[in-house]
Structures are given as structure tokens and as C-alpha cells.
Amino acid sequence: MSRQALGKGLRSLIPETEITRRNQIAQIELDKITTNPFQPRKQFDQEKLEQLAESIRQHGVLEPIIVRSVAAGYEIVVGERRWRACLLAGEVKIPAIIKDFSDRQMTEMALIENLQREDLNAIEEAEGYQILADEFSLTQEEIAQSVGKKRSSVANALRLLNLDSQVKRLVAEGQLSRGHAKVLLAVDNIKERQVYAARVIKDGLSVRELEKMIKNGLRKRKTKTKDKILDPEVRMLEEELQRVLGTKVRLAYQDGKGKIEIEYYSDEELERILDFMRS
Known about the structure:
Elements: H1 3-13, H2 16-21, E1 26-29, E2 33-34, H3 46-59, E3 65-70, E4 73-78, H4 80-89, E5 93-98, H5 103-117, H6 122-136, H7 140-147, H8 151-159, H9 165-172, H10 178-184, H11 190-203, H12 207-229, H13 232-245, E6 249-254, E7 257-262, H14 267-278
Parallel strand pairs: 2-4, 3-5
Antiparallel strand pairs: 1-5, 3-4, 6-7
Helix pairs in contact: 1-5, 3-4, 5-6, 6-8, 7-8, 10-12
């Protein structure tokens, strides 16, 4: 997804005619401004903030922030990083454009701005999508349209919230990549998942190395179970499912109940399988 496509999503929230009509810039005192309560970004790089603060001391704020009026003053819609840097720089006021935005628009704009700048870690992005789903009852398709992403990308991001708090923290801190996190979702046991996460950090494992390690571990545990259930009829059904879906399928069956496991190796393959099932 290109940055230009994301930009279209942002412009749809601030129509050009509105910007042209109400583009007056006000100088607002910093202590009258509070942060966006729907801001998805939780971590700000202190070193980069210091660098921006030094730039502001020398050149001023080159791009105004966007705020909305509230009873206590103003809330930031877009530009919290610039506001924080102004505080560090010892500024008293900051240039701002005042707009009327709903809570939903504030959430969407904060997400889009951070996605364009690639400032969000994988967990912050997922939590931002979850806010849109919980607070404003948006479907994954509606979220995808509002931020200029594919629905499958939104769905995959939201799945990361199923990780335990320890692993999510490691992802948020950048010790585990988004790819590592997606692979770790295959491990249901929390303690075991945390052991794998620790191995990634300790040994510097790539995503593929982690995936291979987990598959080997799962295969060893399932060997006995698989030997028990693979009678001729079950094997035939498993092979039929693999032929129809075009990927590896495991069928566990015992006394009229069990489960079907379908493997996929990319977002595109998952989308293909889902399209097949929907049809």
C-alpha cells in the first residue's frame, strides 16, 4: 500500500474545500492543549524528540498541528510529536489549525498520520484498529477503507492482540518483529510461546528459523496423535481436503468430533482460502 493511497484516506477526512475555507492558523498556548485520547501511538523516541526540539529552537514549527475545541481548551487531532517537542524546546505557543472533528474522525486521522510516517509499532497499530472496532462498531472492511489498508492486513494486525502481554510488550519494544509475532500466534501454550520469544532474542533467530523451530516442536508432539487417528477413512478425507483447498490440511477425528487444521504461508494464500470458503 503506497503512502499516496493512505494520503487519500486522510484527505477524505479533511475535504480540500474545508481546508481552503478554514485554513487560518492560530498561535495557541501549549498548556491549553491536551493529547488525543484516541492516540494509538504510546511510545515516542526521546532522542528523536530532542532532535526535533533543537530544530524548533532554531527554525520554529514548520507545520502547524491540528486541534479541536473542547470544554477545557483544545485536544490534539494530529501533531502530538510536534507539541511534545515544543514543550522540550521551552516554547510557550504552537501554531495550530482548529477543526471540528468527531471522536471517530480523530481516531482515524491519528491512525492514518502515524501509518503514513511508519511511527506505529505492530501492537499500537492493532490497538488503534481495535478502538475503531470497539468504540465505533466498525467492521474490519470499514476500518480498512478508512485507513487505506487491505482488509486482510487489518485482520492480521488484530490477531496480534491475541498474544499474551509479555510477548506483546516485546513486540512493542521492537525486540520481536511483526513477522516473529505472527509466527508465535501458532503456539497456544503461553509459557511455551514465551520460551520461543526468548530464544529469538537470545539467538537472534530470523522469522523463518523461528517458524521452522515451532513446526518441528509441533510435529513431534502430534506424531503419536496422528498415528492413532489416521485410519484409511480419515486419511482419505484429509487428502480430499488438501486437494480441494490446495494446501496442507490435518484432520483430527475421534468418536465423531475433532478439528481441521489448514496451513497457509502468506497473507495472499490466506485470502485465497477465505475467498474459496466464502464462495
